[in-house]
Amino acid sequence: MMKTKFPWCSYLVVTVGSIMMVFPFLDMFFTSFKGPDEINTTDYKLLPNSFEWDNYVTVFREMNMALLFRNSIIVTVSVTVLVLLTSTLAGYALTKLRFKGRNAIFRFILATMMFPPFLFLIPNFYIMVHFPLAGGNDIFGNGGYGGLATSLWALILPFAVSGFGIFLMRQFIMTIPDALIEAARIDGASEIRIFWQIVAPMTTPALATLAIFTFINQWNEFIWALLIYTVNSDLATLPVGIQMLQSYLDPSLTQALVNAALTISVVPVFLVFLFLQKYYVKGMVMSGIKE
């Protein structure tokens, strides 16, 4: 293993990079306590002159934070659990089960990753509105008052399956020895038992990695959530609520409030990453191993 002659250079690069990554979050946090006269000035200061705790009180009052948090938590946790379940099941089937067309199905899944998400906005919305036997719809999806588009299911179902998640779990499950699976089959274990008792526990690093990606992406989802918000305002999530706060009030007076709302919204993401970070690197490395 080669040793650098100037180890301090590595520490310097890491230190500078860390400061560059952390500084925007510190600026957001301290700005959330500033008053309007401190923000609209050319004399920039990181720390506020006085901590305006009323900014957080105003945010909770103006945004109905309890509703926004409830919707975001329910939707994000539900989507994360569904993605973990569907991705692991599909990854196991595409790796350890032998059936005709397996490779073609996997190529089709990879192909779906090449399409931009906004391409599916109109089809997904149409499906949610005309979902059979939902929201007063008949068996043909007609005659109702909005179908699933008026419930939280509209924010969950379109994201329940992830092409990237299936790819990641397949690559990780490939590292599990086939002999272990075959030994369990010889002992009479069913495929469901093999999956839950052997495969699932061994995929913890990959599951944690996928959970982090899915949670962050879904927590910050805005375009689709805004579209559903136009159908039912009670389905607003935190990103939509923050945008509405910025739009309805004077922008010159709401910068601190917006930063306060952003600071609150970052907390769940930070906690999830802090809890799962020890599996992150291991999952990313092992998922790239080929057969």
Name the quaternary structure. Answer: single chain
Mean pLDDT: 83
Order of helices and strands: HHHHHHHHHHHHHH
CATH C-level? Mainly Alpha
Low-pLDDT runs of 5+ residues are: 287-291
User: What is the molecular shape?
Assistant: flat
The span between the termini is 27 Å
* CATH architecture descriptor name: Orthogonal Bundle
CATH superfamily: MetI-like
Q: What share of residues are in beta strands?
A: under 5%
Rg value: 24 Å
Number of helical segments with 4 or more residues: 14
Question: How many beta-strand segments?
Answer: 0
Total domain units: 1
- Would you tell me which CATH topology applies? MetI-like fold
Structural class: mainly alpha
Transmembrane segments: 7-26, 73-94, 106-131, 151-173, 194-216, 257-276
Protein name: ABC transporter permease
Family: Belongs to the binding-protein-dependent transport system permease family.
Pfam family, one: BPD_transp_1
Overview of the molecule:
The structure is a single chain. The protein is mainly alpha-helical. It has a single domain, classed as MetI-like fold. Helices cover 68% and strands 0% of the residues. The chain has helices at 7-31, 36-39, 54-63, 65-96, 102-112, 121-129, 153-156, 163-173, 178-186, 191-202, 204-219, 223-229, 238-248, 251-286. The longest helix has 36 residues, at 251-286. The model is unreliable at 287-291 (pLDDT under 50).
Summarize the structure.
The protein is an all-alpha fold and 291 residues long. It has helices spanning 7-31, 36-39, 54-63, 65-96, 102-112, 121-129, 153-156, 163-173, 178-186, 191-202, 204-219, 223-229, 238-248, 251-286.
